[in-house]
Amino acid sequence: MLRYLLSRLGRALVTLVLIVSAAFIVLRLSGDPAITILGPEAPPEAYAAFRAAWGLDQPIWMQYLKYFGAIAQGDLGNSMRDGRTALEVVGERVPMTLAITLPAFALNLLIGLPAGIFAALNRNTWADRAIMAGSVMGFTVPSFVMGLVLALIFAVKLRWLPSGGSDTISHAILPVVTMGVIGAAVIARFTRSAMLEVLGQPYVRTASAKGLVWREVIVGHVLPNAAIPTLTIIGFMVGSLVAGAVVVESIFSWPGVGRLLVTAVANRDLAVVQVIILMIGTTMVGANLAVDLAYGWVDPRLRTARLKTA
């Protein structure tokens, strides 16, 4: 088991290095921060001084080595905009992002899981069709379209909620609902598919033939086996919470990490962008690792197989 855990951690580390490396190269090839920050009217001497101060006048391979050397020492760089550490700039926005992503994720589970289970247990009924129709709609509609529609209805037409800002709890409702509805649709769809696949297995029919109550069959046999593919999609959604907040925060002017990423990319604030990408990558890799370890708890057969290979 220890060997398996170390293997997974090693893969996670390699994945993070590749993510950060790709972001590093793309950011430095996409534009000159000196021109973006100082403006097009600055004298050439100012550009040269800026590039020298931030090490942008060096070859990209040397910048790359210095960047990872600094990361190894715990230095993630400073913001080119205000000189503060990039970690501080990003860290002050994290609570605002968590304020909408955590309730949205709870909404994903509270709506998506029961809806998917209910639809599978009532296959081909009007309830199943209604749930799947709503799931397909939520699954296919982009988040920016969903956000704009909700803002148009509840902020512009009905005037029940504010269309943007972050002053009160009511300002968080539309961003949370936007992310929650889309995520719930995805979970409902995958949960239903997983449930239907397990319901068609021979051991489910055998359990029913032995006289077990249908509720016991569902709880003891169907749900644990259907949980594995559902856990996979839930883990992916946990990892992509911050990435998914980029569009929603921009629509509703919510001052979180997602909106900061858009601003930092536009301003070529390299260190801030790299910290956010590192945070998103760490979240996704960590969530997938946690889900992978949870497989053994959900399905003892996987745990036994890993113990044999460890």
TrEMBL record:
GO terms for cellular component: plasma membrane. Residues 94-289 form the ABC transmembrane type-1 domain. GO terms for molecular function: dipeptide transmembrane transporter activity. InterPro entries: BPD_transp_1_N (IPR045621), MetI-like (IPR000515), MetI-like_sf (IPR035906). Pfam families: BPD_transp_1, BPD_transp_1_N. The chain crosses the membrane at residues 12-31, 98-121, 133-156, 168-188, 231-252, 272-298. It is found in: Cell membrane. Its main location: membrane. It is a multi-pass membrane protein. This is Peptide/nickel transport system permease protein. Keywords: Cell membrane, Membrane, Transmembrane, Transmembrane helix, Transport. It comes from Albimonas donghaensis. Belongs to the binding-protein-dependent transport system permease family. CDD domains: TM_PBP2. It comes from the Bacteria. PANTHER family: DIPEPTIDE TRANSPORT SYSTEM PERMEASE PROTEIN DPPB-RELATED.
